[in-house]
Amino acid sequence: MKTLKIVTLLTLTAALGACNTMDRLANVGNAPPLTQIQDPTAMAGYQPVRMPMPEPIADTYQSNSLYRTSARGFFKDERAHRVGDILTVKVLVDDSAKISNTTNRNRSSTNSAGMGGIFGAAVDNLSGGTIDPSAAIDLTSGINDAGAGSVNRSEALETSIAAVITQVLPNGNLVIEGRQEVRVNFEVRDLIVSGIVRPSDIQANNTIASTKIAEARISYGGRGQITDVQQPRYGQQVLDAILPF
To answer: Per residue in 140-154, is it b (16+ CB within 10 Å) or e — as a string?
Structure first.
């Protein structure tokens, strides 16, 4: 049964590899295609965001007043606030982390025991003098553990991307999602940003910093000839997944 599973896995791997090879051969000399513009809410795997909501507060109006309680200005607010509106996200990621840990543990113990009197004489007679009753039991144990680890990471990313409001939560917070593709020669760079923002954090010029996005998901990657060279071959990836050593 185990052999059958391995053969099946290798067969499927070979089939997928053949399909991937044919696709690559068909696109030799061509730049990687850009994806079509799609509705984020219609894409596979999309799920509406559900978060804990405060109690809704109805707007109130004062007599002879042009303002309402939720208004942020006298004139119409041009900042994004409805589904389909667009705002600009300023992505600024400048993270660094340095962690170093060292652990040492050492323990040793020694126990010895002997027998005298009648028991010692009996053991000596039975063994013909080959066993020393005074050192009949001698136990020694020791443990020595040492461990060390370190992390040194630095990341920096600064760019801007336009995002679309895909959902307005009951408390007024906005769910946004934006995707940007840039193709240079034979390499496509993808930038994806999504998360939840407060309308009050959107600046007057309709921009918001990525640090003010809750549940932020920022992805920056690429695909093309350079990315293909940097990735291990599919056969190596399969072996890395199934080999226990």
So the answer is: eeeeeeeeeeeeeee
> Is this structure's pTM higher than 0.85?
no
Token pair of 39 as six digits: 């509705």
Could you read off the pLDDT of 171-203 as tens digits, one per residue?
A: 899 999 999 988 888 888 899 999 999 999 999
Question: How far is 189 from 42, CA to CA, in rounded Å?
Answer: 23
In sequence order, the β-bridge partners of residue 24 are none
- Beta bridge partners, 143, equal 107
| SS3 sequence of 132-181 | CHHHCEEEEEEEEEEEEEEEEEEEEEEEEEEEEEEEECCCCCEEEEEEEE
Listed by start position, the domains of the chain span 2-47+66-97+154-242, 99-150
